[in-house]
């Protein structure tokens, strides 16, 4: 059951990102570390997709998010930029007893980026408060998602 759910989620993310990338002005890829523990970042501007896995024993889950950045990498001081957006996320919880469940909601990502090497390398910190809407409205056990990571420009 877990393998089928993870495969279906990965396929959906790939379909969404492939279509989005065809219309992107700039594309970045990278890694983020924090909550969840590790995420892959795919950013066909102005969109951002994250997919990751929380490795915490007994609390494992697969994470995916899709954000629209309406303020994207706006410079505030030379190589320091900010971003602001709105998006959706989902978590596929994978307890040990094989009874997978799903959570989902909206998020409001705020990011600070430091660009290096003529904008090729980006170091970022992103803080994303969010609200669960599924299975019921309210704060999740992780009301703020935080990542520290990097991306590189690929186009």
Structure description:
With about 160 residues, this protein is mainly beta. The chain has one domain (about 1-155): Porin. The chain is about 15% helix and about 60% strand. It contains one helix and nine strands, in the order H-E-E-E-E-E-E-E-E-E. The chain has one helix at about 1-20; strands at about 25-35, 40-45, 45-55, 60-75, 80-95, 100-105, 110-115, 120-135, 145-155. Strands 1, 2, 3, 4, 5, 6, 7, 8 and 9 form a nine-stranded antiparallel β-sheet that branches. A hairpin with a 2-residue loop joins strand 1 and strand 2. The longest helix has 20 residues, at about 1-20. The chain is elongated, with a radius of gyration of 16 Å. The termini are far apart. The mean pLDDT is about 80.
């Amino acid at each position: 059951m877990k393998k089928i759910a993870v495969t279906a989620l990965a396929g959906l993310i790939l379909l969404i990102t492939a279509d989005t990338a065809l219309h992107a002005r700039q594309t970045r890829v990278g890694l983020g570390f924090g909550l969840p523990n590790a995420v892959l970042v795919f950013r066909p501007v102005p969109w951002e997709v994250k997919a990751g896995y929380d490795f915490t024993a007994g609390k494992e889950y697969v994470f995916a998010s899709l954000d629209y950045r309406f303020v994207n990498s706006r410079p505030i001081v030379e190589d320091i930029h900010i971003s602001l957006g709105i998006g959706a996320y989902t978590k596929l919880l994978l307890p040990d007893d094989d009874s997978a469940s799903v959570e989902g909601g909206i998020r409001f990502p705020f990011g600070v980026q430091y660009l290096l090497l003529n904008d090729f390398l980006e170091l970022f910190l992103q803080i994303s408060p969010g609200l669960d809407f599924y299975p019921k409205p309210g704060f999740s056990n992780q009301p703020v998602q935080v990542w520290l990571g990097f991306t590189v420009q690929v186009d």
